[in-house]
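REVIEWER CHECKLIST
Item 1: Sequence provided? yes
Item 2: Single chain? yes
Item 3: Sequence as submitted:
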Amino acid sequence: MLDLRNKFILIYGFGITGKACFNHLKKNNHILIFDDNKKTIPKKYKHLIFNKKKIFDYIVLSPGINFKKCSLKKILKKNYNKIITDLDIFYYENIKNIKTTITGTNGKSTTAKLLYDVLKRHKKDVRLIGNIGKPVLSEKKINKNTEFVIEASSYQIAYSKFFKSNNAMILNISPDHIERHGNISNYVNAKYKLILMQDKKCTSYINKKNKLIRSKIKKNKPKSKIINVNFNNIKKIEKKIYNPYFKNVNNLNNLSFIIQYGIINKLNQKKIINAVNSFVGLKYRQQIIFKKKETNVINDSKSTSFSSSINLLKSYKNIYWLVGGVPKKGDQFNLEKKYFKNIKAYIFSKEKNFFIKKFKNKIYFKTFNSLKKNLQKILEDIKKNKITNPTILFSPAAASFDQFDNFEDRGEYFNKLVKKINFIKKINGK
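Item 4: Structure as written out by the authors:
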């Protein structure tokens, strides 16, 4: 049992999560604060800043803290047993309310939001929290009927010690965040921990086709009931789905988890389909920002690896792909040869050589210094070659911090750029 009353607690990291922890714990405890970037701590809290002479009972570690590279790494190593997360605190205070937690390399935000919409259709008191942007400890007015849908990152799960979810979904796992976890094995372990923490009363939903997940289950079978998601369930209702957002393979796979969840939990299929057809998606995540007949412009700024772009590259015709940014360590461009002729890549990255090396002798590519120049060139090439039904895909497959603050900043810039160059008129040949 986690008792957090009258304790000396160090909150390491004072971003969104850290501030939510502080506000939640300050009433009944003695709080210490630390952040590698001291500018994030307001002046009124300067007297609470941790130094090595101060004592603590627990360390609440924010997901943004890199255990191996942070300022207090020696202290963290020495006091590892004292480390907890906001998920751990939330769990002990709301054991009966934590219904479903979703993780995966790609698609977890979309899937979490879709499940939230489905449950709202069923008149549930459902809350969407976690890595999607709303800290778990910011929730108020929780009652016995409240259900939580939590999006959890590998960083959050890796540091947690007690967190357990009634239902757990691992959508997929592919190499990602290696610079943080050190190797693919550590990354997989962090994701898989979500299931290992469950007991026999819990249910886990997995993609059995994913080799990394399948391998972990063979080596370390969980106590929970395992549901292998049946992707064929989509075919039974596909004719009833007219939302273009679910045209691509990524979102269809995500939807399969919701369908399977609905079957197990006896949800109304008609309400599920209505939620799906009304779903508008999340900003900068495979977001269709322009569509006319078979002409699409898709803003997928959230894409930070090749694996997150691959299925989109398989889902459309005549693809003009805007790609670039800071590539992830060990990232591989594993696209089948049969799709090569369907893609033209336009590279806007300062690290263009990385992408050139991956694309050489595979797909057609051009490079220009700026995103704006690449987009203008795409429009020229479409018009020059009289391409019908093109798809302009902004799916960078790399991190944003070479030119932008984050993927949201990058996504917003692209939307403004499309609007600024009077895209609609140009795509129609006017």
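Item 5: Key structural point noted by reviewer: The CA atoms of residues 155 and 316 lie 33 Å apart.
Item 6: Recommendation: ____
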